[in-house]
Amino acid sequence: MTYSGRVTVGGPADVHELKDLMITKVAVGPMDNNAYLLRCRATDEQLLIDAANDAGTLLGTIGDDGIASVVTTHRHGDHWQALAEVVAATGARTHAGREDAEGIPVPTDVPLDDGDVIRVGRVELTARHLVGHTPGSIALVYDDPHGHPHVFTGDCLFPGGVGNTHKDPKAFASLIHDVETKIFEVLPDETWVYPGHGDDTTLGAERPHLPEWRARGW
């Protein structure tokens, strides 16, 4: 089946099958959070992005092979409600942006800085530090050697705009700058965007609207 990126809480996961990586997207919790399970097709090692809620659903998606790592995109509580239970069940190492680690109640084993590489099997993901939604928000970029890039943006980039900066002009200026310079300026239009809530998008679909976002201030 063709991957759409459209998932609902309580509904089935959607799987994006790439040559080296399988990406399973599932929606959990009262805030319709997205969680992403990445599986290296060469080694079967797995990594989870955002143990957001509903540990039972996440552990069922993970299956008997477990996970080596879990990455929390930022410190907001709706993105780590199931983290303690998932880590207890799997023994996974925890990763999060350095500036957000203290706001996550499960200890962070690997604090991430901009440009750090996280490996899942033979696949490499690059952390990009995007400041504004929170001080330590990170996106993860997978530069697929067989196709276009894929980026997991947490709550920093969605269809229709950047993440919530709570009407703080300084925070918005920081976030739009980081999203433009670290995501849009270095990645092509074909780049697939996997956000922390809701449907997926591409950079090409969003790029024409960057001036509009800057003008409106959110």
Number of strands: 15
Mean pLDDT: 98
Shape: globular
The parts where pLDDT drops under 50 for at least 5 residues are none
Output the strand order for the largest sheet: 1-2-3-4-5-6-7
Order of helices and strands: EEEEHEHEEEEEEEEHEEHH
Number of helices: 5
The span between the termini is 36 Å
The major pleated sheet works out as: 7 strands, mixed
What is the percent of helical residues?
Answer: 10-25%
Structural class: alpha/beta
Beta fraction: 25-35%
Q: Using the CA coordinates, give the radius of gyration.
A: 16 Å
InterPro entries: MBL_Glyoxalase_II, Metallo-B-lactamas, RibonucZ/Hydroxyglut_hydro
Pfam families: Lactamase_B
Protein name: MBL fold metallo-hydrolase
Organism: Streptomyces atrovirens
Which features characterize this protein?
218 residues, 7-stranded mixed sheet, 5 helices, 31% strand, globular
Describe this structure in words.
With 218 residues, the protein is of the alpha/beta class. The protein is built from five helices and 15 strands. Pfam families: Lactamase_B. This is MBL fold metallo-hydrolase. InterPro entries: MBL_Glyoxalase_II, Metallo-B-lactamas, RibonucZ/Hydroxyglut_hydro.
